[in-house]
Design a protein that fits this description.
The chain has 14 helices and 14 strands. With 410 residues, the chain is α/β, with parallel strands linked by helices. β6 and β7 form a beta hairpin.
Length: 410
């Protein structure tokens, strides 16, 4: 046992092989009492087996926490992010990134409740998640001790991990004895697949990698038409049926799945400095992004919309880099939320073979004035002759610069 070892550790625990090894390692390396926390974020797998696995490894029932966080996840993290139309590097809908702050928050809450002096995660030392978890821990509990086994232990290979599991009677499923062809992270917003067969960015991902969507080629030949209702920037209904945040995203996920919507093959820049290739599937989120931009197109004025678009990449980077709880993200969120006060109405979407297309939008708060834009005679709100002075004023600086250029060249 190491000196100054933590006495009680809250572990983010999936019940899988890696976090089960971490659990036993915390007990053997530090002699620590371990508290397990398993978050149900809609990853699509049963979470109760994690309870049985933790009990099998000697964790007391009162030290096992399994929380259904799906509604909180969508309401307080996913929807606020989508109000900004957030995309990292122009494409990625941040499905993994947005889940980490909630897990970190709940871990700290449990640590306080049980009197733990440390928290632990299973993220590797090469990825972004270690940063996201730990920045979350420290902003919520500045003096908490963080244990990151992948940066500490001496295991150098998969075989050594398997050997440790066998020595400590940790159950190993047959598929875990060989190397996994790729790793998967999933929640209600998306699935992410990385590594192994996906490491060469020149090679197309095998079809079996996809978790959440059928291929666009296999999608129905007939389009699906849906209507999404919005209030203050957040979706509240599908086809007239009011739904809770998690239920609504689940419905959109199914519609996206059935129409082959939401696939992304991306090489991204990790915060830790390297590039990585990932296969992301965000079926409901892809539909939601297009629909939200559709309702904003008739309810936001040009200045507000363009300012949001200017700020969005900065906002996306803050989330990607683990700074959800940082003051600058909260400042940007206040601006974004202010912009959504009148973003209310309905959007009709056509879902067809991998595409989510806006085909109609309406709002009681609409800024769209058909009389202003019509080509027909009779419009009185706009005098086309006014455009001449508008153009000449905007051309003034260009004309002055052109005159100077002529003098220099002449």
């Amino acid at each position: 046992m190491k000196k100054n070892a933590p006495k009680k550790v809250v572990l983010a625990y999936s019940g899988g092989l890696d976090t089960s090894i971490i659990l036993k390692w915390l007990q053997t390396e530090y002699g620590a009492e371990v508290v397990t926390f398993t978050a149900d974020l809609g990853q699509g797998e049963e979470v109760e087996p994690a309870r049985r696995k933790a009990e099998l490894l000697g964790i007391k029932p009162e030290n096992i926490f399994i929380d259904d966080l799906r509604e909180e996840f969508v309401r307080d993290y996913v929807f606020p992010m989508f109000r900004a139309n957030t995309l990292y590097e122009g494409q990625y809908l941040l499905g993994t990134s947005i889940a980490r702050p909630l897990i970190a928050k709940r871990q700290i809450e449990i640590a306080r409740a049980v009197g733990a002096d440390a928290v632990c995660h299973g993220a590797t030392g090469k990825g972004n998640d270690q940063v996201r978890f730990e920045l979350g821990y420290y902003v919520l509990e500045p003096n908490i001790r963080v244990v990151a086994p992948w940066r500490e232990w001496d295991f150098k290979s998969r075989e050594q991990l398997i050997h440790f599991a066998e020595q400590n009677q940790i159950p190993i499923s047959r598929d875990k004895r060989g190397e996994s062809p790729f790793s998967v992270d999933a929640n209600l917003l998306h699935s992410s697949s990385e590594g192994k067969v996906l490491e060469d960015p020149a090679v197309e991902a095998p079809e079996y990698v996809h978790q959440r969507t059928i291929s666009p080629e296999e999608a129905p030949d007939k389009p699906t038409i849906i209507e999404i209702g919005f209030e203050r920037g957040d979706p509240v209904s599908v086809d007239g049926e009011s739904l809770s945040p998690a239920a609504l995203l689940t419905r959109l996920n199914q519609l996206g799945h059935d129409n082959g919507i939401g696939r992304l093959d991306l090489v991204e820049n990790r915060f830790v400095g390297m590039k990585s290739r990932g296969i992301y599937e965000t079926p409901g989120g892809t539909i939601l992004l297009a629909a939200h931009r559709g309702i904003e197109s008739i309810t936001l004025d040009a200045g507000s919309m363009h300012l949001k678009d200017d700020l969005m990449p900065r906002y996306a980077s803050l989330i990607y880099n683990g700074l959800w709880f940082a003051p600058e993200r909260e400042m940007l969120q206040a601006l974004i939320d202010k912009s959504q006060e009148l973003v209310t109405g309905k959007v009709r979407m056509k879902l067809y073979k991998g595409n989510a297309t806006v085909i109609g939008r309406e709002s009681p708060m609409s800024l769209y004035d058909q009389e202003l834009v019509t080509f027909e005679e009779g419009a009185t709100a706009y005098d086309q002759r006014d455009a001449e002075g508008f153009i000449r004023l905007n051309a003034l600086r260009l004309r002055v610069a052109a005159q100077r250029k002529s003098k220099i060249e002449g």
